[in-house]
Every structure is written in structure tokens, then in C-alpha cells.
Amino acid sequence: MKIETRPTQAKVFTALLLASSIFMALLGMSASAYYVPGACLLLQAILMWKGTGFRLFKSILQLNQLTGLLLIVVLWLGDALHLPKLDISGVMLLGNLLFGGPLMSILAIGLLASFHFSHTLPVWLGSAQRKVQGKAYPLPLWEQA
């Protein structure tokens, strides 16, 4: 029977997500709106630690990046596009905070790059689903020796 261990990337990103969650919760003592990103970061840390919920994890990261990007574009080009700049940017700001806030945006760069260029985290986050389906845990090529 093979014992599975957490990959180092999963441990590092879990620690970063947890530290970010704690920092956002501390900010929440001053402005209660920061409790929501803190809770989202905590959810992401739990998913990463347990190795489950790849689709949910990746969707939250992508939505965070999308809302942050749209927020920046609307603030930059809102007057030129003749759009209600403050209304749209307010909604994008709330969406960004709902999906983890600015700290998630920073961590998402490394996480999404790791999903794209490495197989370690996608395999780790999908491992519980593969166990339930009865499939073996696929090892990356560099660990198959």
C-alpha cells in the first residue's frame, strides 16, 4: 500500500493562503468587508490542504482574476467608453472581494501558472475524486522511476 504525501507546492501555497486569510481577517477588525475575502482565502487553503475541489478552486481563482482585470479596465477606460464608471467598478470591486480580494489576486498568478506549467497541483487537487472513482493516483513523470 502506497502512502501519499502532500507535494511541497501544496504545503507552500496552503501556508500562503492561510497567512493571507489571517491577514484579511485582521483587516476585517477595522473594515468588516474584509471578512469575506478572509473566508474565501480560508476555503481555498482548506481545499488545497485536503487535495479536493480542483474545479471549485480553479474557478474561484479565475473569477478573482477576471473581476480584478475588469475593475482596472473600467477605471482606466470608463470615461472613454461612456459607461457608468463608478457603478461598474463598484460591482467589480465587490466581486473581487467576494472571490478572495487583492491577496488572492497576487497568489493566483503563481497558482494559475503552476496549474498550466506543472501537473503537481492539478493532480493533487483532483486526487480525492480519482480515489473515489477507483482510479490510481497518477504520478508525474519525474517521480516514476
Mean pLDDT: 82
Task: Give the beta-strand count.
Answer: 0
The end-to-end span amounts to 17 Å
In total, the number of domains comes to 1
Structural class: mainly alpha
Basic shape? globular
Our count of helices gives 7
Spans with pLDDT under 50 lasting ≥5 residues? none
User: Helical proportion?
Assistant: over 70%
Beta-strand proportion: under 5%
Order of H and E elements: HHHHHHH
The gyration radius over C-alpha positions equals 18 Å
- Biggest sheet: strands, sense, closure? none
Blueprint of the fold:
Layout: H1 8-27, H2 35-50, H3 54-77, H4 85-98, H5 101-117, H6 120-125, H7 127-132
Helix pairs in contact: 1-2, 1-5, 3-4, 3-5
Please describe the structure with a list of short key phrases separated by commas or semicolons.
single chain; 145 residues; mainly alpha; 7 helices; 71% helix; 0% strand; globular
What do these coordinates show?
There is one protein chain. With 145 residues, this protein is an all-alpha fold. The chain has one domain. The mean pLDDT is 82. It is built from seven helices and no strands.
